[in-house]
UniProtKB/TrEMBL annotation:
SUPFAM superfamilies: P-loop containing nucleoside triphosphate hydrolases, Ribosomal protein S5 domain 2-like. GO terms for biological process: proteolysis. It comes from the Bacteria. SMART domains: AAA (SM00382). The lineage of its organism: Bacteria, Pseudomonadati, Pseudomonadota, Betaproteobacteria, Burkholderiales. GO terms for molecular function: peptidase activity. The keyword Hydrolase applies. InterPro entries: AAA+_ATPase, CHLI-like, MCM_dom, Mg_chelat-rel, Mg_chelat-rel_C, Mg_chelatse_chII-like_cat_dom, P-loop_NTPase, Ribosomal_Su5_D2-typ_SF. Belongs to the Mg-chelatase subunits D/I family. ComM subfamily. It comes from Pseudorhodoferax aquiterrae. PANTHER family: COMPETENCE PROTEIN COMM (PTHR32039:SF7), MAGNESIUM-CHELATASE SUBUNIT CHLI (PTHR32039). Keywords: ATP-binding, Hydrolase, Nucleotide-binding, Protease. Residues 220-401 form the AAA+ ATPase domain. Gene3D superfamilies: 3.30.230.10, P-loop containing nucleotide triphosphate hydrolases. This is ATP-dependent protease.
């Protein structure tokens, strides 16, 4: 048969549109033509496929006019994932592989010149997209990629180490397929053990107010801004925050791992552990929210169901910080370009840390500040009001004295605090089906009932502090989480009062 069809997929964000690799062998001047809106790395597959077939001891049709079409033609194709489908299409069209047996299988993999298969990015994202569509297919993937894809429950995944392993499994004939070699293996569905726990909160001496704020943030899914002088423990607290969050559900772990797989950063050692992303303050807006051509996930998507820690917040480019506004509200980021549009999940917890002034010691008691009032105001004004309004908890952290640092006993462990956070989160999920941070509109009114005294207190505080409607709603969400931690159904004045403390703006010269 001179025409063969092999099925594969291309990744557009976390979506996986089908791609049919059509191969036609015809008489005429020998040539190898590849069409179908292929990027440079796909066009280079011609040389990799030719060498892999020859070095594997198979026959390459040198005397034929080879035409490979990647359909649909208007869908951009990138990466080396189409090497294996193209090679199989040529072998099927030349009769070295039974084209009929390829039905029900989808292939992806980059070929080395010797015919060995190399992993490709996004195998877990590909498997998860197919699982969501409930399509009964068997994925044939290289080592490294197959193990990722097999994490998705009920997916049929085969690992092949060499082109010859695939050829042996689909050898021509009317009977069953020939016995594949040792490199061909069906992977049983199974999840690796969870990663070990990280750093312990008990290592942080003192800072009880900051630990309380992080406990509230972990229980309700709230974002936090930590303001304090250098060495006060902001980074230590942020690095231990992810382990305060409730354990990941399998669905959350798969979504988070799929984004990491798409970026080529997934590791089985981090399975079921919430990610903590810590980009440098020189990161651009594209690095933070994603972009490029084709669109790639940024740091906010790689922190999906985890933590995004922005240290030295005011040193980030203004455009990069302002790009965080919509994802903080919606939990998604849509990247639109002239040729393509991609959407990535970005349900992350923002932990930001900053100094109160350029020298870092404005308001400190152990060291004098060298900055003028104008310098302090200009420094703090690098953060826009709309961005600050989207951060639920604002907390000032004071530096510890040497005596406090040396004599303070160890505090509660991460496991103890996480147990309380998990119980409060479970209470919220049972009541409303989502964490408190996501409550909005009528849901917030229905699930955050408050006493008359608490309502009067909130009205008075909002008027005195000049809060926006968003600020009032965020204070209510924080108060709802505080009440959940105490097992209270209604919000009383103490819950509102504590939430108000966490909505204080940055302290500038001349303020209290």
């Amino acid at each position: 048969m001179s025409l063969s069809l092999v099925q594969s997929r291309v990744l557009m964000g976390l979506d996986a549109p089908a791609v049919t690799v059509e191969v036609h062998l015809a008489n005429g001047l020998p040539s190898f033509t590849l069409v179908g809106l292929a990027h440079t790395e796909v066009k280079e597959a011609r040389e990799r496929v030719r060498s892999a077939i020859q070095n594997a001891g198979l026959a390459f049709p040198h005397n034929k006019r080879i035409t490979v079409n990647l359909a649909p033609a208007d869908l951009p194709k990138d990466s080396g994932r189409f090497d294996l489908p193209i090679a199989l299409g040529i072998l099927a069209a030349s009769g070295q592989v039974d084209a009929g047996r390829l039905a029900g299988h989808e292939f992806a993999g980059e070929l080395s010149l010797s015919g060995e298969l190399r992993p490709v990015h996004g195998a877990l994202a590909l498997s998860l997209a197919l699982h969501d569509r409930a399509e009964p297919v068997t994925l044939v993937l290289p080592p490294g990629s197959a193990e990722e894809a097999a994490l998705v429950p009920d997916m049929r995944v085969v690992r092949a180490r060499h082109l010859l392993d695939v050829v042996a499994a689909f050898a021509p004939g009317n009977g069953p397929a020939a016995a594949p070699g040792a490199g061909w293996a069906r992977l049983e569905p199974g999840l690796p053990p969870a990663a070990p726990a990280g750093l312990d909160l008990a290592d942080v001496k003192g800072q009880s107010a900051a630990k309380r704020a992080l406990e509230i943030a972990a229980a309700g899914g709230h974002s936090v801004l930590l303001v304090g002088p250098p060495g006060s423990g902001k980074s230590m607290l942020a690095q231990r925050f992810a382990d305060l969050l409730p354990p990941m559900r399998t669905e959350e772990a798969l979504q988070s791992a799929a984004v990491a797989s798409l970026a080529g950063q997934f590791s089985l050692a981090q399975w079921m552990r919430r990610p903590t992303r810590t980009p440098h303050h020189t990161a651009s807006a594209v690095a933070l929210v994603g972009g490029g051509s084709p669109p790639r996930p940024g740091e906010i998507s790689l922190a999906h169901h985890g933590v995004l820690f922005l240290d030295e917040l005011v040193e980030f480019p203004r455009a990069a910080l302002e790009a965080l506004r919509e994802p903080l509200e919606t939990g998604r980021i849509a990247i639109a370009r002239a040729a393509r549009r991609a959407e990535f999940p970005a349900r992350f917890l923002l932990i930001a840390a900053m100094n109160p002034c350029p020298c870092g010691y404005f308001g400190a008691t152990h060291r004098a500040c060298r900055c003028s009032p104008d310098q302090v105001v200009r420094y703090q004004s690098k953060l826009s009001g709309p961005l600050l309004d989207r951060i639920d908890l604002h907390l000032e952290i004071a530096a510890l004295s040497p005596q406090e640092l040396l004599d303070t006993p160890a505090a509660e462990s991460t496991a103890t605090v996480r147990a309380r956070c998990s119980a409060a989160r479970a209470l919220a999920m049972q009541r409303q089906g989502q964490c408190n941070q996501a409550l909005a509109g009528q849901e917030l009114e229905r699930h955050a009932p408050r006493t008359e005294e608490a309502a009067r207190f909130l009205n008075h505080a909002a008027a005195r502090l000049g809060w926006s409607a968003r600020g009032i709603h965020r204070a209510l969400r924080v108060a709802r989480t505080i009440a959940d931690l105490q097992g209270s159904e209604r919000l009383d004045t103490s819950h509102i009062a504590e939430a108000v403390q966490y909505r204080r703006a940055l302290r500038s010269p001349g303020t209290g």
